Amino acid sequence: GGLAPVSIPTFKMAVRLRLISTALAMAGMFAAILMVGALFPAVGGSIGKLDLPKGVTDLLGGADYGNLRGWMRSEIGAVYGPLVIAATGIAAASGSLAGEEESGILGVILAHPVKRSRLVLAKGAAVAVDVLLVALGTLVGLIAGVAAGGGGIALGDLIALCIHLAFFGLMFGALALALAGMTGRKAIASGAAASFGVAAFLINGFAPLVDQIDWLKYLSPFHYYSGHDPISNGLDIPDLAVLALVTISLTLIAVLGFGRRDLHG
């Protein structure tokens, strides 16, 4: 891998080290979505649409539990899916870059002829593998869950939701990677990225309720992930492009930040 933009041995090692935790996340997503789907025939008809304030229903993906599409959008698309995939990206990025720096492992690796930029990009590529595998586990879970719930949602719509979910997770992984690259501190990288996620979630739900701050929703990645409602309307290329551009920019910041710092550990 001498000419590759990423360090292939570093990439393979990073993927291997997180394989078990990623497999567990995939299995957890599959099991949870299957149970949510299987539960719908028993409770879906009796719940219907919850009578909640608009900001709260937006946070819950519309809170329309009367049909399987609304049920899956609210239970998986609005909360559980983005929570798990963002956590996957954040944990992978902060652990493999800042965590290994704090433990001294990166210092040993960089004693060999490995460019810092190639190392960071290798870590970023491994984070992307983790996120994409969890998105794949989500898709398989949705296919099984929709079947268990009685069907009626096209495969294309499920794929669209999972592609949006993957781009969303990649952005949070890149954010944690940028913070890890700039600070070298795992707690800062994971804590700040998670805090941003919570704030972004709340802004996306409540900013549209007040005309003066409605524009704030455009600063939230949740707007680009779910604002177009991919499980109903399919892919939204402009929204995905925004998430992709932010991901690329944050990855570049990670490379530059890590390259210019004295390492800890």
Give structural notes.
This protein has 11 helices and no strands. It has about 260 residues and is an all-alpha fold. The chain is globular and about 65 Å long. The mean pLDDT is about 90.
- The protein's oligomeric status is single chain
The overall average pLDDT, rounded, is 89
Apparent shape: globular
Helix content: over 70%
Distance between the termini: 27 Å
Strand content range? under 5%
The largest β sheet comes out as: none
Radius of gyration: 19 Å
What structural class should be given to the helix and strand makeup? mainly alpha
Q: Strand tally, please?
A: 0
State the order of secondary-structure elements, H for helix, E for strand. HHHHHHHHHHH
Number of helices: 11
Q: Topology, pairings included?
A:
Layout: H1 8-17, H2 19-47, H3 54-59, H4 68-103, H5 105-110, H6 116-148, H7 155-183, H8 186-206, H9 221-226, H10 230-233, H11 237-259
Keyword list:
265 residues; mainly alpha; 11 helices; globular
In short:
The chain is mainly alpha-helical. It has 11 helices and no strands. Helices cover 77% and strands 0% of the residues.
